[in-house]
UniProtKB/TrEMBL annotation, chain A:
It comes from Funneliformis mosseae. The lineage of its organism: Eukaryota, Fungi, Fungi incertae sedis, Mucoromycota, Glomeromycotina. This is DNA primase large subunit. Belongs to the eukaryotic-type primase large subunit family. It comes from the Eukaryota. One of its GO terms (cellular component) is alpha DNA polymerase:primase complex.
Automatic annotation (TrEMBL), chain B:
It comes from Funneliformis mosseae. The keyword Transmembrane helix does not apply. This is DNA primase. One of its GO terms (cellular component) is alpha DNA polymerase:primase complex. NCBIfam families: primase_sml (TIGR00335). InterPro entries: DNA_primase_S, DNA_primase_ssu_euk/arc. One of its GO terms (biological process) is DNA replication, synthesis of primer.
Length: 472, 390
């Protein structure tokens, strides 16, 4: 595959990395690493490939776990297992049996190889940043307090400590949540702790956040993310200038091999659906789309985000932009043509990439529908399993034909525990009668409304085939 | 100058197309504050990138959107406005290059780099319980909802985030915008904006969730919320119970009762009020407080209801996306003809949206003034702005 002799040792630094050496006997005193210093030693091509592959397994596993909306504890356990297989990394206090330095060296080098691989486009950089941060977060929270502090000290990361007088002067406000008497507080610009600000979990005064020791993780994550984000930008620039014939094909290969999965699947249902034939598919719509559809029929209108959610769903079914325009025009029967063209047509065409920056928007998956653009008062979009109150969801379920009290309670309890997609899957199984049918497999968790639709259609087709066979 | 209401008929809507172009012409030629407007957006007198790379968006008289406009000088901006007479001007972000050169630039060369932090409060979001009016209609009663929202948000932005340069503007129909112009605010990334919007967002949930506020059960209110609560407490009785009478009849009070998790309490109050539907909202609110009891749990529910009715309802998309376009201050609302005038937050209680000048009233005021003063030579050179009464 490559024109490089595999036994030939190559130094990474001669391609892209700045030369700096780890000094002293203990190169890696801590299990944690901010990856501010690039590795400079020579490694074999074999190592290059296998290190990259192994780290990728861990990041991909992390992506899968997060996308599946697993509990934090569950993710921790899962990633611990995956890491032990591919990229073990033990703490200082663990058994002496592990070769800690060797593990950390692999962690260090593999990070830098993938950093290079993933520095090429904005999307790849964003992906890598997200899951490296998630990985670091897991590892950081695993360590004990002393280890954390000594690591931060060595990395030269410090924040302004609140003096006793300052502490007393805002004692009332600081006391609102934390154990004031035992806490050390740091004073820091609010921009540096976005997650604490977003959760209203920190006291703010005149642009400063007062962060208790217990929320150290937020501060550390901000530093980690900032540094890695900058480093990735730098890497992307040097990547362009230092195109290297030897290393390029290898990097290409790594991306190709492990990134195929992120390609979007095709949800189109075939038969070139039209603005009219859509109505025949309604029985296959997931609850979110049923809800939007019913609202559209009743009010002859949908608001902005509901329109986007539904329009992209139609696009996923396979409606062309013209058919989609026709569908909306007919559905908004109260709105005259001039107003429709002025206020709505642009956005519909925009979703199809026919306007503006011509981005071809993908149908929204469950994660986006659940987490992004939550509905405000008066808005009806989003995931019904999340956005409906228990009583409204109950009546909706009954309306949709879920009559068994046990089934209803099961779905309600899943939504209460925030397992919205599992609830949706259960809804599918119940309404399609999969639960009583032993010979049909229970489906995988629904992750996309168009996937729901497709599953529903193919289930119907299969059953029809079966019936036809039986008839004959 | 005459301070009384002028004796002219003031239509709320502009009657026909021909009129509106003429009115806009007078408005832009004689009244629009080009100079201070541009100095503001330029954040200084010497025109630089902040102004030149700023995206503008005009809506012309055929209702067509003209996007990605930008101007190299104040003159150029003025000339274009006086050529198009836009029905509406939107302001976007400052980009890394000139938006008007978009077509010749690579997509990656045109990135948003800064933008005021924006907040949009719209009466629309209060429609689920507003009893005095609905839709685009507002009155002095429901305007109080916006007044309370301004007070709470203004305090939070200043005291929590330390912002100082807040421009509050009437949106021209049924809401207000806030432009936070501090340099620190302008430089916030989208993610940082998101965290601020989330910090300030207490009311969560769409049309399918009646209870929209959940406060923490196990510790005290966050200092920002307890400051907000003090403001809410001050206005709740007058605005919610007296003006809106949210407990007046069953259709209204059931929305309040939906916020109480305890079914027994809910049922008891409902039965009681059905028997005595004529009790005033204030008395019914006392019933509710008594029914909730004076334990901590009941206190939280009470606060949740009060927050749900009076805490600001923010349009998140406006605040979180740097590239979001927002109607410019000082322009005219296309459907009411009202000018988007600034509001002084310290005096927001005295602001009356019904008295905001329309381009029609301004036109007449200038006209009257000129007629009445036709013989006074020394007034000849008076600028047009002092001839109006607002």
């Amino acid at each position: 595959m490559y024109s490089i002799d595999k036994s030939n040792k190559r130094s990474l630094s001669s391609y892209t990395y700045e030369v700096k050496r780890h000094q002293g006997k203990k190169s890696y005193p801590h299990v944690l690493n901010f990856y501010s210093i690039s590795p400079t030693e020579e490694i074999t091509i074999d190592e290059f490939e296998s290190f990259a592959f192994d780290r990728m397994q861990v990041l991909k596993a992390l992506e899968g776990a997060i996308l599946r909306n697993k509990e934090e504890e569950e993710i921790k356990k899962h990633i611990e297992n995956v890491s032990n297989t591919w990229l073990p990394l033990h703490s200082n206090e663990s058994d002496k049996g592990y070769s800690l330095q060797e593990e950390r060296r692999k962690d260090h080098i593999s990070h830098f190889i993938l950093r290079l691989v993933y520095s090429r486009t904005e999307n790849l950089r964003a992906w890598f940043l997200k899951y490296e941060c998630a990985l670091f977060k897991l590892r950081f929270s695993r360590e004990n307090k002393d280890e954390k502090l000594s690591f931060l000290k060595d990395e030269n990361i410090t924040w302004k400590n609140l003096s006793k007088a300052e502490r007393e002067s805002m004692a009332n406000e600081l006391r609102w949540s934390s154990n004031f008497d035992e806490e050390t507080f740091f004073e820091i610009d609010f921009e540096k702790v976005p997650d604490l600000v977003a959760r209203r979990a920190v006291y703010l005064k005149k642009g400063k956040a007062y962060v208790p020791m217990t929320d150290l993780l937020s501060l550390v994550m901000y530093e980690f993310r900032q540094r890695l984000s900058k480093a990735l930008d730098l890497a992307s620039k040097s990547f362009i200038t230092s195109r290297n014939e030897r290393i390029m094909p290898m990097l290409n290969e790594i991306i190709k091999q492990y990134d195929g999965r992120t390609q979007t699947s095709n949800y189109s249902v075939g038969d070139d659906p039209t603005s009219d034939s859509v109505h025949q598919l309604v029985e296959h719509f997931p609850l979110c789309m049923q809800h939007l559809y019913q609202n559209l029929r009743e009010n002859l209108h949908l608001k902005h985000f509901a329109r986007i959610q539904f329009n992209l769903f139609l696009k996923g079914i396979g409606l062309t932009v013209d058919e989609a325009l026709a569908f909306w025009k007919k559905s908004f029967s109260n709105i005259d043509d001039a107003k429709f063209q002025k206020d709505y047509a642009y956005n519909i065409r925009h979703n199809y990439g026919a306007e503006g920056k011509r981005q071809d928007y993908k149908p929204l998956n469950c994660m986006s529908i659940i987490t992004k653009q939550r509905p405000n008062s008066g808005q009806i979009h989003g995931c019904p399993f999340r956005e409906f109150s228990q009583s409204n969801l109950r009546s909706k379920l009954v309306q949709m034909g879920v009559r068994n009290e046990e089934h209803i309670r099961e779905i309600l309890s899943l939504t209460e525990r925030e397992h919205y997609q599992v609830a949706c899957t259960k809804y599918f199984e119940i309404t399609k009668g999969l639960l009583d049918d032993n010979d049909e497999n229970i489906i995988e968790t629904i992750e996309h409304p168009n996937e729901y639709l497709k599953a529903s259609i193919s289930l119907k087709k299969n059953r029809m085939k079966m019936n036809n066979k039986d008839d004959k | 100058m005459d301070i009384d209401e002028p004796q002219v008929n003031k239509p709320q809507r502009i009657e026909n197309e021909g009129d509106s172009v003429e009115l806009l012409r007078v408005f832009y030629q004689r009244l629009f504050p080009f100079k201070i407007y541009c100095y503001w957006l330029n954040y200084g007198i010497d025109v630089g990138k902040l102004f030149q790379n700023r995206e503008f968006n005009f809506v012309n008289n055929n209702d067509a959107y003209i996007r990605y406009l930008s101007f190299d000088t104040i003159e150029e901006f003025k000339n274009e406005v006086l050529r198009v007479y836009p029905k509406k001007i939107d302001i976007g972000a400052v980009f890394s290059a000139k938006p008007k050169e978009k077509k010749s630039l690579k997509l990656s060369a045109l990135k948003p780099v800064e933008k005021e932090l924006l907040f949009d409060i719209d009466m629309n979001d209060y429609d689920e319980f507003r009893t005095c009016c609905s839709g685009a209609v507002i009155c002095e009663k429901c305007w109080q909802l916006i007044t309370v929202a301004i007070k709470i948000l203004d305090a939070a932005l200043r005291e929590d985030f330390g912002f100082k340069h807040l421009l509050w503007v009437y949106s021209g129909r049924r809401g207000v915008h806030c432009w936070v112009c501090d340099e620190r605010a302008r430089n916030l990334s989208d993610d940082e904006r998101k965290s601020i919007a989330s910090y300030l967002g207490v009311i969560k949930g769409g049309a399918q969730k009646n209870k929209k506020v959940y406060l923490p059960k196990h510790h005290q209110l966050h200092p920002s919320l307890s400051r907000a609560f003090n403001i809410i407490e001050e206005y709740f009785e007058q605005v919610i119970l007296r003006d809106q009478e949210v407990l007046k009849d069953e259709q209204e009070w059931s929305k309040v009762l939906d916020c109480i998790p305890d079914i027994d309490v809910r049922q008891r109050l409902n039965d009681n009020w059905r028997k005595n539907p004529c009790r005033h909202s204030i008395q019914k609110w006392d019933d509710l407080i008594n029914a909730l009891g004076n334990q901590k749990k009941g206190d939280i529910v009470k606060k949740e209801i009060m927050f749900q009715y009076l805490y600001p309802r923010l349009d998140e998309a406006v605040s979180t996306k740097m590239i979001h376009l927002l109607k410019s201050p000082f322009c005219v609302h296309p459907s009411t003809g009202q000018v988007c005038v600034p509001i002084i937050p310290e005096e927001c209680e005295n602001f009356n949206p019904m008295r905001v000048p329309t381009i029609y009233s301004l036109y007449n005021e200038i006209d009257d003034y000129n007629k009445n003063n036709v013989n006074k030579d020394r007034e000849r050179n008076l600028h047009d702005v002092p001839k109006t009464i607002y």
